[in-house]
Amino acid sequence: MSTATAPAGRLEGSTSGVRTAGVGTVIVFAGLSLGLAAAATLGGVPSALVPFVLAIGPMVFALLFAWREGDGALRRLLAMAVRRPDRRAWYALVGLPLAWAIAVIGVAIALGDPAVGIFDKVFPAIVIVPVIVLIPAFAEEIAWRGYAVTRLLPSMSPLAAALLLGVPWAAMHLFLQLPGQMNAGLDWWPTVISLLSYSVILTYAFVWSGGSVLLVALVHAGLNGVAPLMAGLDVDRTWIIRAFLTASLAVAVVVIGAIRRPAAGSLARQIGR
After folding, report:
1. DSSP tag of 103
2. Sorting pLDDT into bands at 50, 70 and 90, what band is 7?
């Protein structure tokens, strides 16, 4: 398994099913995904369905690309969706979104949001939203971590892969801020910071867990699912607070990754199963 300080090429260069794809293929995948985002938001798709198109579309591209590679690549990609982490301790990461949401609420109150009635809008959204976001989270993680990160690691570190993929991933989410879309009117720069940071956090979780899309999808779903806890806060201020706290968490993850130095062959062995 690679870290930000250990070249990933030594880890996965011989992994079956990854050798036939590389940076160029992933760039094509990202370009198609970005084009789909533009087509969906500008082409008349109902705004309520656009987030699902942006999640499921890249997964379809990833599955098709993996099928085209042959040599069992599609089977291995699908297997990642149900693969358990190398160690049970990694499941603790599923609690990270809740801690993050509580931190956002604390900072928002400290900066002036009223504490009274802050959770008035939590129910029933806190029960419904996590269920709704679960399938899109799995779809996105199969595509961006399971497919794309796996094919970049032979050529670069997890940090480089996370930042490279974070650019088109963030750009896709900016389409959700166009007029009529779910995030219309919000500042664009916190979105970029947040998505780049999410990309780092989820990529490291994917690498450390031995290639478990299951784990990172649960974390991803949690990050989206805790949104109702923050519904009573000032939207614009919270949008910025979320970005800065997520960036701080991403920096901490990179620092921990540089110190931790996980076992070198773990991810390659997992993917080759």
Report:
1. H
2. very low
Query: How many other CB atoms are there within 10 angstroms of residue 68's CB atom?
Result: 12
Q: What is the DSSP letter of 84?
A: P
Check: CB of residue 3 under 8 Å from CB of residue 260: yes
**Any bridge partners for residue 3, and if so which?**
6
Alpha-helical regions (H) of 70-187: 73-80, 96-110, 125-141, 150-152, 158-174
pTM of the model: 0.88
Is the separation of the CB atoms in 16 and 71 below 8 Å?
yes
Integer Cα distance of 148 and 59 in angstroms? 10
pLDDT for position 267: 52
In the numeric block, the tokens 């779910």 are attached to: 182
Q: How far apart are CA 201 and CA 46, in angstroms?
A: 31
Give the confidence band of 32 by pLDDT, cuts at 50, 70, 90.
very high
Residue 272 has a pLDDT of: 46
